[in-house]
Design brief:
109 residues, alpha+beta, Glutaredoxin, globular
Length: 109
């Protein structure tokens, strides 16, 4: 059993100017902070429930800023706080994968 019902990792990698694209250039740290506040406001920020974490590079930055939610291992991209609200409301609260924001699975099978 997982320590958290949902463990959400936001790629907040920051590269040097002129290198590959990175999630933090798209506001990932700001949006992660927003998600943490929203989860706390909903009363979901506790062991046994939901944890929002920062991650280093998740190697999918070219697909847009990304997050991954465990234990389901669902990968999402987002544009802004509205997209993250939808992920929180539908996936974390409602248990439904948000297909329009889901990144393509890379694992074979």
């Amino acid at each position: 059993m997982s320590h958290y019902r949902h463990h959400v990792f936001f790629c907040c990698n920051q590269r040097k100017p002129g290198e590959r694209v990175c999630c933090n250039d798209a506001g990932a740290s700001r949006v992660r902070d927003y998600a943490k506040k929203r989860i706390k406001a909903l009363g979901l920020a506790a062991p046994g429930n939901t944890r929002i974490n920062q991650a280093g590079c998740l190697e999918r930055c070219e697909e847009g800023p990304c997050i991954v939610i465990y234990p389901e291992a669902v990968w999402y991209t987002y544009v802004d706080e509205d997209d993250v609200d939808e992920i929180i409301d539908r996936h974390i609260v409602g248990g439904e994968v948000v297909e329009r924001l889901k990144l393509k699975d890379l694992a074979p099978g």
